[in-house]
Amino acid sequence: MNYQINYHASYHKVEQCPEADRPEFAFIGRSNVGKSSLINSLFGRKELAYVSKQPGKTQSINYYKVDERFYVVDLPGFGYAKHSKKQRLSWDKMTKRYFLNRPNMACVFVLIDANIPLQAIDRAFINWLGEHHLPYVLIFTKSDKSKPREIKKNIENIKNELLKDWEYLPPQFVTSSVKGEGKDLVLDYLFNLADEMIDDERK
């Protein structure tokens, strides 16, 4: 798969975001879920998205352009307790405004740590996406951090928890930024969906 991805721009206000003239794929999850690391792993660029050992470092809406065809967007992580309540609420408000004002949104990639139980903040955000009819998939991260059987069991538990709220779940992917697990499946899904949207716009 040949493509070029480059940093486009960062914004602190939704109104500053670029014109909605191409498909957009947003990556979001709790702070320290491995969001920036996954973006770097997917696109084979170690320093494309800034990775910090300190959670909560992504504080803006960061745009990356792929082949002039679509955008990949790295959003602030949610739920980092060491930021002030005012700051967390501000980011939450900005993020939700972003989702509700991007008509070109192709898919939201919701990242969930595959090693721990479903967190209340993850569940609340997923329910919010569903209630607003926003398309999303689940990306389970850090699959290399525990034994395969433990990862599998925890993911099943998470899915069962989510099925208490919904009749069915969207597509799911299990990934490891360290080992590259799931990379090709996520990229195939992303590029195929982008192509479908671009083809539909041309009709």
From TrEMBL:
- Report whether GTP-binding shows up as a keyword of the record: yes
Q: Which cofactor does it need?
A: Mg(2+)
Q: Which gene encodes it?
A: yihA
PROSITE patterns assigned: G_ENGB (PS51706)
Native species of this protein?
A: Membranihabitans marinus
Which GO biological process annotations does it have?
Answer: division septum assembly
One Pfam family this sequence matches: MMR_HSR1
- Could you tell me what this protein does? Necessary for normal cell division and for the maintenance of normal septation.
Domain of life (superkingdom): Bacteria
Q: Which GO terms fall under molecular function for this chain's record?
A: GTP binding; metal ion binding
- Domain (EngB-type G): give its ranges: 21-196
Protein family according to the UniProt entry: Belongs to the TRAFAC class TrmE-Era-EngA-EngB-Septin-like GTPase superfamily. EngB GTPase family.
Name the keywords, alphabetized. Answer: Cell cycle, Cell division, GTP-binding, Magnesium, Metal-binding, Nucleotide-binding, Septation
Q: What is this protein called?
A: Probable GTP-binding protein EngB
Q: Which CDD domains match?
A: YihA_EngB (cd01876)
